[in-house]
Here is the input.
Amino acid sequence: SVTTMKRRKVCQVCVLMIRPALLVKCIRRILHGKHVFKLNQCTNCHGKDGTSPFNLTTRRDSLSDDELREFIKDPASFGNRRMPAFKTVISENDLDALIFYLRTLP
Here is the structure.
């Protein structure tokens, strides 16, 4: 649920404050995900912040990480016929970083 995700983010922030090395790792992962977002031209439809012209935050907030992974791989299976499938385009490592980055967007 959305409340559970918000609690998880608060807990992650607390851990980052205690372990600076983890903070560096998280920043690298976010930057990697941001690179994947740009490299795959996600900004063309979702803008730099994920909201324009097609807002991805509503869908993102309603899906678990596993569901979001499946959505990105095959959006048509979720009823989205506009977004291209990235099943054969994005590696699992890049997909992990992308989802991590998407969770940081407002």
Summary: The chain has a mean pLDDT of 87. The chain is about 65% helix and 0% strand.
